[in-house]
Design goal:
Helix 4 links the parallel strand 5 and strand 6. This protein has a domain of 196 residues: NAD(P)-binding Rossmann-like Domain (Rossmann fold). Helix content is 37%, strand content 17%. It is of the alpha/beta class. Helix 1 crosses helix 6, helix 3 runs parallel beside helix 4 and helix 7 crosses helix 10. The chain is built from ten helices and 13 strands. This is NAD-dependent epimerase/dehydratase domain-containing protein. Pfam families: Epimerase. InterPro entries: Epimerase_deHydtase (IPR001509), NAD(P)-bd_dom_sf (IPR036291).
Length: 300
């Protein structure tokens, strides 16, 4: 039994990957509602409720934490989720695989981020993430941390390469881009994230460590737009949001929280996955192929 906590884009992509690997899959979210393959079991539970969480993960060999928490709630809710996971998973003997984000490193001045990069977050949310990662790595829990860059791919909407890029590009309208679009920027394709998490859940040598999951070599955002234009056979033009101000689905509340992370778009934002690829032999999907599949999903 492999249990996936959360039904956002990452959780749903992971469900697909685990089923493709022949796993028995249980999926947990707060609403008890989700569009899932028939082979997956859906359970309603709040993961901060230890009793409900214990029932949801009963019999699990591996538990994957793909829960999503809005930025404004992260400093208060993420530690509560961790408290529950450490207590409950610690009693079951299951492995835990959890997604972490690059904001725990803080600005690097453009130096590519590796697993050896210091946790030097300058943002409130980044400092919370750093404390969470440090606590997991110092615990006795059999846990592996999977790191990803900016998400894109099927089902991924609220992202810098999501609903403000692909739908307008399909309509021939300007797409939205943040900051300096001529800086290299790593983007993680959601199916690559799912494959990476599933592999961490299978491999003993993954435990007790943080891993940068497969990511294609960084291009500039302008180059990414050019590739989308080649796929669509028409140019893609960008409306650049140079500062963290509300725009489209990125409303005032979102941008107020995102402002402290806007350095992702004002300095090179490059994630190095060489440790993962050399250890597990898996590489990211070529970015043109990943973008083409994402265009097909948004078209459908």
């Amino acid at each position: 039994m492999h249990v996936v906590l959360g039904t956002g884009p990452a959780g749903l992509a992971l469900v697909d990957e685990l089923l493709a690997r022949g796993r028995q899959v249980r999926v947990v979210n707060r609403s008890g509602k989700a569009v899932l393959p028939a082979a997956a079991e859906l359970v309603r539970a709040d993961v901060t409720d230890r009793t409900a969480l214990a029932a949801a993960v009963e019999g699990a060999e591996v538990v994957y934490n793909c829960t999503h928490v809005p930025y404004a709630q992260q400093p208060e809710v993420l530690p509560r989720i961790q408290d529950a996971l450490i207590e409950v998973i610690g009693r079951t003997g299951a492995r835990l695989v959890t997604i972490e984000t690059l904001n725990l490193y803080g600005p690097t001045g453009g130096v590519p981020m590796t697993e050896r990069t210091a946790f030097a977050a300058t943002s409130r949310k980044g400092r919370v993430r750093a404390r969470i990662a440090e606590r997991y790595l110092a615990s006795d829990l059999p846990v592996a941390l999977g790191m990803a860059a900016d998400f894109f791919g099927p089902r991924t909407m609220i992202a810098s390469l999501g609903a403000t890029v692909f739908p307008p590009a399909l309509r021939g309208e300007p797409v939205v881009a943040f900051g300096d679009i001529d800086l290299p920027h790593s983007y993680t394709y959601i199916p690559d994230l799912a494959r990476g998490l599933a592999t961490l859940g299978e491999r003993e040598e993954a435990l007790g460590k943080l891993w940068h999951l497969p990511v294609a070599p960084a291009l500039t955002t302008r180059q990414v737009h050019e590739l989308i234009g080649e796929i669509l056979a028409r140019p893609v033009h960008a409306h650049v949001v140079a500062e963290p101000i509300p725009w489209g689905p990125f409303d005032e509340e979102f941008m107020a929280e995102y402002a402290e992370l806007f350095y992702w778009h004002t300095e090179p934002f490059v994630m190095d996955d060489s440790l993962y690829t050399s250890t597990f032999g898996q590489h990211a999907t070529p970015i043109r192929e990943a973008l083409a599949e994402t265009v097909r999903w948004f078209t459908a």
